[in-house]
Amino acid sequence: MNIFTPVNKHLLIEKIDLDSKKEGLVELPEDYVKKNLNRYIPVKFLSHSADCDILYENFFGSSIKVILVVDQTMIEEVIIEDINYSLVHQNNVIGVMENTYEIK
To answer: Is there a domain that residue 76 lies in?
Structure first.
């Protein structure tokens, strides 16, 4: 498997599915994707490019799992060999949160 390494001050992130445990009263088609109406969303920080600010280097080397808050309209989806990578430029991170979500 190829390992994707972000460059040019980008961060590799993973979207957090906060609605996966909520069940509705209406059955929807399997391919239905609910739009998130919030402009800012929490994402899981996975990796960063070597030229990112030292702040991200500290997060990456930490044993603490970091949740970033980003403008979801600025997330770039890159698909290579059927693998989806989510990237965001470091300037589009507006905050950092404690990992209070039940994520891996």
So the answer is: yes
